[in-house]
Specification:
Blueprint lengths: L7 H11 L2 H5 L13 H21 L9 H12 L9 E2 H11 L5 H10 L11 E4 L17 E4 L1 H7 L9 E3 L6 E3 L8 H5 L1 E4 L4 E4 L4 H13 L5 H4 L13 E3 L1 H10 L1 E7 L1 E7 L2 E8 L6 H13 L6 E6 L8 E5 L5 H11 L3 E7 L1 E4 L3 E4 L2 H42 L1 H10 L3 H12 L3 H8 L8 H26 L1 H19 L6 E3 L16 E7 L3 E6 L13 E2 L9 E8 L3 E6 L3 E6 L13 E2 L12 E7 L7 E6 L3 E6 L11 E2 L9 E7 L4 E6 L3 E6 L13 E2 L9 E7 L4 E6 L3 E6 L13 E2 L10 E7 L4 E7 L3 E6 L13 E2 L9 E8 L18
Parallel strand pairs: 8-17
Antiparallel strand pairs: 1-3, 2-3, 4-5, 6-7, 8-9, 9-14, 10-11, 11-13, 12-13, 15-16, 18-19, 18-21, 19-24, 20-39, 22-23, 22-25, 23-28, 26-27, 26-29, 27-32, 30-31, 30-33, 31-36, 34-35, 34-37, 35-40, 38-39, 38-41
Amino acid sequence: MDDNTPNTDDKNLNEAVNEPAVEVIAPQTHSRSIEDRTVENVMEDSYLRYSMSVIVERALPDVRDGLKPVHRRILYSMNSEGLRSSARHRKSANVVGSVMGKYHPHGDASIYDSMVRMAQPWSMRYMLINGQGNYGSMDGDPPAAMRYTEAKMARLADELLADIDKDTVDFRDNYDGTTQEPAVLPAKIPNLLLNGQLGIAVGMATNIPPHNLGELIDATVHQIENPEATLDDLLQYIQGPDFPTGGVIYGKESIRTAYATGRGGIVVRGVAEIVETGKLHQIIITEIPYALNKESLIIKIAELVNTKRIGGIRDIRDESARGNVRIVIDLKKDAYPKKLLNQLYKLTPLQSAFHFNMMALIDGIQPRVLGLQDIIQEHIKHRQVVVRRRTEFELRKARERAHILEGLKIALDNIDEVIATIRASQTTEEAQVNLIKRFKLSDIQARAILAMQLRTLAGLERKKIEDELAELQGIIANLMAILASEARILKIITDELLEVRKSYADERRTKVIVHELGRMNDEDMIPDEQVVVTLTSANYIKRSQIADYKKQGRGGKGRRGMVTREEDVIEHVVYASTHDFLLFFTNKGRVFRLKTYELPAVNLNAKGVALVNLLQLQPEEKVSSVINISKTSTTGNLMMCTTRGVVKKTPFEQYQNLRSNGLITINLDEGDELRWIRITNSDNEVVISTAQGQAIRFHEKDVRPMGRVSRGVRGIRLRAGDQVIGMDLVEQGSSIFVISQNGYGKRTKISQFTAHTRGGVGIRSAIVNTKTGQLVGVKSLVDDEHEVIIISQQGITIRLSLDKIPELSRATQGVRIMRLNEKDRVVSLALVEKTLIDEEEVEIVAEEVNV
């Protein structure tokens, strides 16, 4: 090639370079198709499109049929392939493949998981798919692969798709436009409430519980028949959610709030029973809260036992079979069954909360939180549309058939002319045209006449056509009347609902308790029982079972009741309920408060724990008096007495709120100590006794009410070397029981103690000498329905009936109540009510001691 010959490519390049710049860029011709947007705008728009797609097409159910798209597509696909309830089961893989290929291109796993859930009796209150094979378990076991399981529609699912072939709902193109799918199912029943739904979308979620079919239909029928019905009217029929796993719901008011607003929470408990097997007990769990994994519940209980957060459990095993839950928990011999059950409710998912969030799509596009009445009304509107469209479809088909029959009747009435017209025609098309022209028929009628068989000319066949036409005319009139009356449409909806109720309604599984279940506290896990609280001079405290103090006769040896140090003695014995408050008054004039169950529960011969671990006591401060206050007590006064005979009365209301570091209750003189406290009702009489056998009786009105920090007034004038050893309340007909250091005691009628004004020296209550020793305790008795527990310095205890103690006059020393060692002495006593205990069955925990 000649070098001077211009290269064709270079020529084209030069031409391109020399072209005007405006022709290269040409901004004017495309300016309208260019949109100036920021990255933020694009991201916002894309995310909005994505979120709406998730909300509408995947996560939220439609209020009309209560189904998400995947559930609707599964049921429609099965119905289209003939897998209705009357058909044979077919491989699940076949169903999943059909759904994924035609309607739901989101993967086989999501389709199969949704399909499995509709066949699980513990997930669905009313199953929509009849599964065959391994469909998982309540323990969280996965189902078998789809190639192993089989499925068909359940009977109730037929009601969701009934009349779908009668133009009752709109259809739309599937994802690739190759076929059509329903936008919603006809749904005879309010399925959204029937089986509930759970879904998480973008920025919103739904959680709707299942309900009982019979209750739902009754409420829907009531709403149809009474358009002005209120929510409370509907709640006369719907008790609350009805979970497939049963359980117990607490709180009608919580349920009503959730139904009114579409949001709220309810407390759901499993069902457990305490069963006695011989000397041991079992807790048997037969129902668990909805959506709870049974295996995880068992694992949680085992963890609590291993970490010692729950004690008293010997063994736990799962005896569930054939869909029936049965978890057996064997308890130890010394366990409290009720306490353990309450602990299980508090510490495990055996008690859990279900949170309502009733969000659904309105008309398939608008997400909204709906109340119970809103959902029922939306379903009624949907059924009105379905019934109207079905009626229009049936009317259209009836008219089409009647139109054909009218043409056949014309032909039969003029059969000879019809035959002649057809014979004279050269072709079928010509015959059709001639029939239309001759007899004024439509194309459809003419084609029907041409297709008519000769047997139709028989008399009976002619009669059939006339009868069918007459019947169709009646049907058409009825269908037109239905379309003209909204009341008749609602009546049809009601009748269909009642027919469904008759076929499918069953008993409620979940029980509803009217009262609310408050937040469980420690007290709920403690059995309410009577105990004996003992406190030593060194401030060691414990609580023991009342049965541990075995009753004996007067003059018995007693039983080892508490191991104490040599210098420690038991000073206080209080009979109380585990749910009572205990007020601890100290010798320094302060008061603390604890629940009885907060004290350590140990056996009779245990030492207990130091009270300083429970109360914020100061150095040299010790508890001098303990009284029990019922949790319902709110009125009355506290009458106090010190060792120097000072008394004080303070209204009980001043002790309602006690700080952890205690409150001042009396202003003491130097060297004085607060020792005795009693609750009075403003009309009591008081008796104060001294160690040297003096006693004074006066009315509490002699002591005016005072504030907590006041000093008080004189109750009894003490002689030299004497001190107060007890104060108690008395009434007419009661007796005074006294006990001395050496175990001598007696009862004396209160009538022998003349009432005086407070502040005197009193009168003799008992003879005190070296044989008896000084008095150490005094109690007021109303009747013989009490027993006394007497405790010695060495920890020996005796429990005996007061009717065994004789009544003697004031000027006597009494009789021997308790035999003591030479170096031992009585230090404390307490009264308890008689208990019905079979002494042969009482397990003796304490140790026998020979004195």
